[in-house]
Design brief:
The complex is a heterodimer of chains A (about 425) and B (about 425).
Chain A: H1 3-25, E1 41-44, E2 47-50, E3 52-55, H2 69-82, E4 86-88, H3 93-96, H4 98-106, E5 115-120, H5 128-141, E6 147-155, H6 157-165, H7 168-177, E7 181-188, H8 192-201, E8 207-211, H9 216-219, H10 222-231, E9 236-239, H11 252-261, H12 267-276, E10 281-287, H13 291-301, H14 309-323, H15 344-356, H16 362-372, H17 398-414
Parallel strand pairs in A: 3-4, 3-10, 4-5, 5-6, 6-7, 7-8, 8-9, 9-10
Antiparallel strand pairs in A: 1-2
Chain B: H1 8-26, H2 36-39, H3 43-52, H4 56-72, H5 75-80, H6 82-93, H7 105-120, H8 127-130, H9 132-144, H10 155-167, H11 170-175, H12 177-187, E1 191-195, H13 205-209, E2 215-216, E3 221-222, H14 232-236, E4 242-246, H15 258-285, H16 300-306, H17 312-316, E5 322-323, E6 333-334, H18 347-351, H19 362-366, E7 368-375, H20 385-389, E8 395-396, E9 404-405, H21 415-419, E10 425-435
Antiparallel strand pairs in B: 1-4, 2-3, 5-6, 7-10, 8-9
């Protein structure tokens, strides 16, 4: 062998390896698979939309923190087979990776037979040209020519001003005429008053996405928002039906009440069935980060039945028992994005778990979970800059809550 | 040394090398900022930039360099490469004559393959260990800051001196990935530097002069792949027997284990390529503390992987706050104890040859948040100096009261931390950097 052959060998070997690894990516690219049926559907302008919407804000992640795309693909496959036909992503989800990953996951399926939804991130707009740039980027990321449902994302006072300032609605209307958007709506994260204002401002909204669940029904004026949407005759896409998994992980007392009545049913299924009792719901978005969540939801949404009057009373009792313990109303949406890297949602989730835990080990569990966070991610690293506050859709006073959690940690540790 | 041949090409080359070398050192001095563009012509930072942050400038630099190597051989190594010239200088100081240097091509190709795989997979940080330009920068900045820099950073200088004393330009022919790549280009060039079979009497003067060990005078063979084009052989040959001509058929050096070596190299390259991203992640995670990075670094993780640690930005930082890696931070970082990030300066963004600090307009830089201020109101003496110094109007203050901080205006320039007489303000690192 001489040098020329040596180089040739290396090249061949490398090319071969690259090709081989390339092949594994393409192994199941058969196009045009049909989704199954079985999930209860709602009628919407001639469409049968599955009442279970596949939320892409809480994708499965590996222990390293990286998105587990392979597992996500398998879960989407399972959901498609079961009959889930509404897939809801957004530009900002999963640090901006959700759209691409969702696009790849639904690629094998017949585009006519499922609904793909994404949203215009008004919060990120800095000039009018951004609207078109982002929209085109979204089409590319999702590998599609059109979106079935398209929302103006996360409207609160500031974002609504942006929406008007940068002429978002006229642009989206143009896209609708071109057929790149089938149905236009918005997601709302503010007061009922603003909701009314937005609905009155534009008469061609086709649907609205609201945060409705048993916890927000009274406490954050969910009922009023629901009534406004019903009066305007807008079908409702429900977000946070489990309030960021809070309703799936009730405290021990509430769980006992539910289990005593029906040992089979999960806490999540109660929450969904409570929602099923409301009129005018188009779909409920569930961000399923484990295959177990998906399986449980498929069970709940196959022949979805609202709660009976008796069950409703039981659920009310359970929620009451749950609310007796104070906790933080964080839904882990992670819009807050702390600039110095405090893991806000993680800290609140650990704190809530601690608060809802009735076992003797609760303090040990709290300390060990809290200390499992990297030092740079803990609550005492908060510099109280307050940049998170306007970003929080739940309008939490994050800096003071963080201080509270850290004080509790010091107290528990000192005791 | 007694040169009895045609000395003119050699002296031209020496003059050119001296000019470039002086300019390249001068580019590290504050007055030499206009020359920093010259350093961007270095191959490795341009290649790293191409992989990490594509730009046409970098592409052109890479292609022009490869073309020059193809047409004229490794001229870069003797005329432009500051690390190569540094080795020539060290060699001259220690009066090194080369002995026989083995052609360790398997080491050379392995290094190239691994480094290339690292760069393509985004872990460009590996360049700081092996790239000639980065090591040169490291040495220059080391000498320029000799009082404040720990002695350990002189390790590259000590190592290269020892290598030169041992076998002269062995780094260039055996380890340097840039040289290996240029060598491959030169090898397939139509025009080569050759020993004329008719003129050569086999006296062996050229072999003794060659610092790269590229000449075998017995076989009258000059290995263009390793030849760094120092042109000493032309000057030394009494009969003028070494000249540019259309290359003879390349003589190959066979190896018994070539096949195994090929496999190992390719497997290593593919393996590194597959693992490089993860490795990059691990390296970034292993940083003990989050450093404050220069404006334009955006993500710390990316910055750590793109920065080749040449130290050019450190030398051009007007506020003298950019520091070389030390025991606390394993990367170029900001330390506000000596100054602040000057509001109307963006030298670091202008000079960075590797694209680790992205190019910005002054307005962009003035709106680039690199950190946030943390106030310790218990220490605060309510003097109001910070209010006066803040270039963004992020701090307001009424006489005798605590200052009010508006984080949404703050870019973390450190002016307040720098002026605070009671150390009540600390700039905290953020990740990623954002435009406000």
């Amino acid at each position: 062998m001489d040098r020329r052959e040596f180089i040739k060998n290396s090249l061949l070997f490398t090319t071969g390896a690259v090709l081989l690894s390339g092949c594994t990516f393409n192994k199941d690219s058969a196009a045009g698979l049909k989704p199954g049926t079985g999930i209860t559907t709602a009628k919407f302008k001639g469409l049968d939309v599955s009442m279970l919407g596949y939320g892409c804000m809480r994708m499965p992640v590996k222990p390293s923190g990286e998105i587990d795309e392979e597992l996500n693909r398998k879960m989407v496959q399972r959901a498609m087979e079961a009959g889930v036909n509404y897939y809801d992503t957004a530009y900002m989800y999963m640090g901006g990776k959700s759209e691409e990953i969702t696009g790849r996951a639904v690629k094998p399926y017949d585009r006519q037979l499922f609904n793909l939804t994404t949203k215009m991130p008004v919060v990120m707009l800095e000039k009018e040209e951004d609207v078109e740039r982002i929209f085109n980027e979204q089409l590319k990321r999702c590998q599609t020519d059109y979106f079935d449902f398209y929302l103006v994302h996360c409207l609160n006072k500031r974002n609504w001003e942006n929406t008007k300032k940068y002429n978002v609605i006229p642009f989206l209307e143009k896209m609708k005429k071109k057929g790149k958007i089938k149905h236009l709506g918005f997601s709302h994260h503010d007061t009922p008053e603003l909701l009314q204002e937005i609905i009155d401002y534009y008469d061609k909204w086709e649907f609205v996405q609201l945060q409705i669940n048993r916890l927000d029904w009274k406490t954050t004026r969910g009922e009023e928002q629901y009534n406004i949407a019903r009066k305007a005759n807008l079908p409702i896409v429900v977000m946070e039906p489990l309030r960021g998994s809070l309703l799936a992980n009730l405290n021990a007392e509430a769980t006992k009440i539910l289990k005593d009545y029906n040992p089979e049913a999960s806490a999540a299924s109660w929450a969904f069935r409570w929602l099923a009792g409301l009129e005018g719901i188009l779909t409920m978005l569930s961000g399923m980060s484990r295959p177990e969540h998906l399986e449980d939801n498929i069970k709940t949404f196959t022949n979805l039945k609202p709660l009976s009057a008796e069950e409703n009373a039981v659920y009310d009792r359970a929620i009451e028992a749950h609310l007796k313990q104070a906790a933080i109303g964080c839904t882990s949406c992670r819009y807050c994005e702390c600039p110095v890297g405090v893991n806000i949602a993680g800290i609140f989730s650990i704190y809530n778990q601690y608060k809802y835990d009735d076992s003797a080990m609760k303090k040990v569990g709290f300390i060990s979970h809290y200390e499992a966070l990297k030092e740079s991610e803990r609550a005492d690293k908060c510099i109280k800059c307050g940049l998170c506050k306007p970003k929080c859709p739940q309008q939490l006073d994050i800096p003071s809550l963080l201080a509270k959690v850290h004080q509790e940690y010091l107290a528990v540790k000192g005791a | 040394m007694k040169f009895r041949g045609n000395r003119k090409p050699y002296f031209i080359r020496i003059t050119a090398a001296a000019l470039f070398f002086t300019a390249e050192i001068f580019a590290f001095l504050p007055a030499g900022k206009f020359l920093s563009g010259l350093l961007a012509f270095n191959f490795a930072p341009a290649a790293a930039r191409l992989a990490a942050d594509f730009s046409f400038t970098a592409l052109i630099i890479v292609l022009v360099n490869l073309l020059i190597a193809f047409l004229f051989g490794r001229i870069y190594c003797s005329v432009f490469c500051p690390f190569g010239i540094l080795q020539d200088i060290i060699g001259a100081v220690f009066r090194r004559k080369s002995g026989k240097t083995p052609n360790l091509f398997y080491i050379r190709y392995t290094v190239l393959a691994i480094v290339a795989a690292f760069i393509i997979s985004g872990a460009g940080a590996v360049l700081r260990f092996i790239d000639p330009y980065s090591n040169f920068g490291n040495i220059v900045t080391g000498f320029l800051n000799i009082k404040t820099i720990p002695l350990l950073t002189f390790l590259p200088f000590v190592l290269i001196t020892l290598l030169v004393i041992w076998k002269n330009r062995i780094f260039c022919t055996t380890l340097c990935p840039v040289g290996t790549l240029f060598g491959l280009c030169a090898k397939f060039s139509p025009k080569k530097l050759c020993i004329s079979q008719e003129i050569c009497k086999g006296c062996g003067v050229c072999e003794k002069e060659c610092p790269a060990g590229a000449i075998n005078s017995k076989e009258k063979y000059l290995d263009n792949e390793r030849c760094t084009r120092c042109l000493r052989c032309i000057a030394a040959c009494p009969g003028g027997g070494i000249k540019y001509m259309t290359g003879e058929k390349e003589k190959f050096l066979p190896s018994r284990r070539t096949f195994i070596v090929t496999g190992v190299i390719a497997a290593a390259a593919v393996g590194v390529f597959a693992k490089g991203k993860e490795l990059a992640h691990t390296i970034a995670e292993s940083l003990k503390k989050r450093p404050i990075c220069p404006p334009g670094a955006v993500y710390v993780e990316n910055f750590v992987q793109k920065c080749t640690n040449c130290g050019l930005c450190v030398e051009h930082c007007r506020g003298r706050i950019l520091k070389k890696p030390d025991f606390e931070y394993d990367t170029v970082h900001i330390d506000f104890s000596d100054g602040k990030c000057e509001f109307d300066c963006k030298n670091c963004s202008d000079v960075c040859p590797a694209g680790a600090i992205r190019k910005m307009t002054l307005e962009e830089k003035q709106n680039c948040r690199i950190g946030l201020a943390k106030f310790d109101y218990e220490k605060c003496s309510r003097c109001g100096l910070c209010t006066a110094k803040c270039p963004k109007g992020a701090i307001t203050h009424k006489y005798g009261q605590l200052p009010v901080y508006t984080a949404s205006r703050c870019i973390g320039c450190g002016a307040c931390e720098n002026i605070c007489p009671v150390n009540a303000i600390e700039i905290v690192a953020i990740n990623p950097q954002t435009q406000i």
